[in-house]
Design goal:
With 403 residues, this protein is mainly β. It has one domain. Helices cover 7% and strands 33% of the residues. The protein has three helices and 31 strands. The strands form four sheets. It has a 19-stranded parallel sheet that branches. Strands 4-7-9-12-16-19-22-25 form an eight-stranded parallel sheet. It has a two-stranded parallel sheet with strand order 11-15. Strand 1, helix 2 and strand 2 form a beta-alpha-beta unit. The longest helix has 14 residues. It is elongated. It starts with a helix and ends with a helix.
C-alpha cells in the first residue's frame, strides 16, 4: 500500500474518533457557548467564562464521553424557552456526559421554576454530588421536574449523592425515567410535587415508565402527590436500604410492573405504604427484611398480593405475608424521623423494637445474592451475628443507652 494512502486512511480514522473532554465550570451565570463544537467552553459575554450551559452545549457538539466539574455555589437557570437544544430552558443532553458537583450541599443547581433542569435524550450519563432544586413548571413540565431521561434499551443514567428539593412536574416531580435504565443511590428526595393535569398524578418523587431502575440507600420523605411518591408502570424497580416516609399518597405504586423491596422502612405514607394494581400473574412484587408502619390507611392498599421473602414486620395484616420471620399486627417500634448519622433522615428502631437482631447473618442477602455489609447510612450491617429488619441497623451506642 502506498504511503500517501496509509496517511489518508490514518487521517480519516483519527478524525472520525470522538474524544473525552473534561470541562471545569468557572462561572455561575446562565450563558450560552460562543461556538459549540470548537472544544472551548467559553460563553459569549466574557472571555474564558465557562458556564454550565456552555459546557453542556460543547459536550453535545463534540460527542464522546465528557465530564463536567462544578464548583461549590449556586447555579440558577434563567434563559426561558422550550427548544430542545440546550440554548434555552432546560439543559438538554444528547451525548454521554457525567456531571460532578463539589458535594451534595455545596453545589446547587436551581431551575428557577422555568423548566426542568436536565433532559437526557437517548444517552447514558450521570449526575452526582450536588443539589437540584426548584426544577420544573407545572404548566410546561410533563415529566421529571429535575431530571427526565428518555433512553433506549442500552442507556442508563446514574444518580448518586444528589438532593432533590422543591421540584415539580405532572409526573416524576423530581425524576422521570422513560425507557432505559436508571440508578439512584445515596440520595434525598424531599418536598417534591406531582401536580395534576387532569387525572394524571404519578410519582411526587420518581416515576418510571417502561424502565428498569434501582434505588439504594436513599431517603424519600415529605413529597406531595394525591396518588404516590414513587410510581412504576410497565417497568421494574428495586429498592434496598431505603426509607419512604411521611409522603402524601402511597409510598410505592406498581402498575403491571415488577418490584423488589429489601431492607427498607416505610412509615406513615398517608394513602398506604404499598399499592399493586392492574396486576397479573406475569408480574412479581416481592418484599423482604423490611419494616412497615401505617398510621391511617393500610400498609397494602390494593388487590395485588406481594410475595414475602421473609423477615418483614408490619403493624397490620393487610399484605398477607406468611413467610419465615414475618410478623404481622406487630408494632415495629420506630423512632421519629431523625438524622441518625450521615446526611439523611431515617427511622431508627427503638430499644425494644422487634426489628433488632431478627435476621440470621446467612439470610442477610441483597440483590444478586450478595451479603449485606452496610445500612442506609453506610454503617456496618450486621452488628453481631444477626441483621436488623429495615433500612437502619441499630448501633451499639444506641443499644447501650447512649442516645
Amino acid at each position: 500500500m502506498k504511503l500517501r494512502t496509509i496517511i489518508a486512511l490514518a487521517f480519516l480514522f483519527t478524525t472520525s474518533l470522538s474524544f473525552s473532554v473534561d470541562f471545569t465550570v468557572n462561572s455561575f451565570s446562565d450563558l450560552i457557548d460562543d461556538s459549540p463544537g470548537d472544544g472551548n467552553c467559553d460563553a459569549t459575554e466574557q472571555l474564558f467564562q465557562c458556564t454550565l450551559r456552555a459546557a453542556i452545549m460543547e459536550s453535545n457538539a463534540l460527542g464522546g464521553v465528557d465530564t463536567i466539574y462544578l464548583p461549590a455555589g449556586v447555579f440558577t437557570l434563567s434563559i426561558v424557552g422550550e427548544d430542545l437544544d440546550a440554548f434555552v430552558g432546560d439543559l438538554d443532553i444528547r451525548e454521554e456526559v457525567h456531571i460532578v458537583g463539589a458535594g451534595m450541599d455545596l453545589t446547587i443547581i436551581d431551575g428557577g421554576g422555568i423548566d426542568r433542569i436536565f433532559q437526557f435524550f437517548g444517552v447514558s450519563g450521570s449526575v452526582s454530588n450536588l443539589t437540584l432544586r426548584n426544577g420544573g413548571n407545572a404548566s410546561v413540565t410533563s415529566h421529571g421536574g429535575a431530571i427526565l431521561t428518555q433512553g433506549g434499551s442500552m442507556t442508563e443514567v446514574a444518580i448518586d449523592n444528589v438532593k432533590f428539593i422543591n421540584n415539580r412536574a405532572n409526573d416524576g416531580g423530581a425524576v422521570s425515567f422513560l425507557n432505559g435504565a436508571g440508578s439512584i443511590k445515596n440520595s434525598i428526595f424531599d418536598s417534591n410535587y406531582a401536580v395534576s393535569i387532569g387525572n394524571n398524578e404519578f410519582g411526587a418523587a420518581v416515576s418510571c415508565f417502561y424502565c428498569d431502575f434501582i434505588m439504594d440507600s436513599t431517603q424519600v420523605t415529605n413529597n406531595y402527590d394525591a396518588f404516590n411518591a414513587i410510581f412504576i408502570e410497565e417497568g421494574s424497580g428495586k429498592f434496598i436500604n431505603t426509607t419512604v416516609s411521611s409522603n402524601t399518597g402511597v409510598g410505592i405504586s406498581a402498575k403491571n410492573s415488577d418490584a423488589s423491596i429489601r431492607f427498607s422502612t416505610f412509615y406513615n405514607n398517608t394513602e398506604g405504604n404499598l399499592a399493586l394494581y392492574s396486576f397479573d400473574s406475569s408480574n412479581l412484587f416481592e418484599i423482604g427484611f423490611s419494616a412497615f408502619q401505617r398510621i391511617t390507611n393500610g400498609n397494602c392498599v390494593s388487590s395485588g398480593v406481594p410475595i414475602s421473602l421473609g423477615y418483614n414486620v408490619l403493624n397490620d395484616d393487610s399484605c398477607g405475608l406468611m413467610n419465615i420471620g414475618d410478623m404481622e399486627d406487630t408494632d415495629p417500634m420506630l423512632e421519629p424521623l431523625h438524622q441518625n448519622g450521615g446526611n439523611m433522615l431515617s427511622h431508627i428502631p427503638a430499644g425494644e423494637s422487634p426489628l433488632i437482631d431478627q435476621i440470621p447473618v446467612g439470610d442477610c442477602i441483597g440483590f444478586l445474592a450478595t451479603p449485606m455489609t452496610t445500612d442506609q447510612r453506610g454503617d456496618l450491617r450486621p452488628i453481631g451475628d444477626h441483621c436488623d429488619v429495615g433500612a437502619i441497623e441499630r448501633d451499639l451506642i444506641f443499644a447501650n443507652g447512649f442516645e
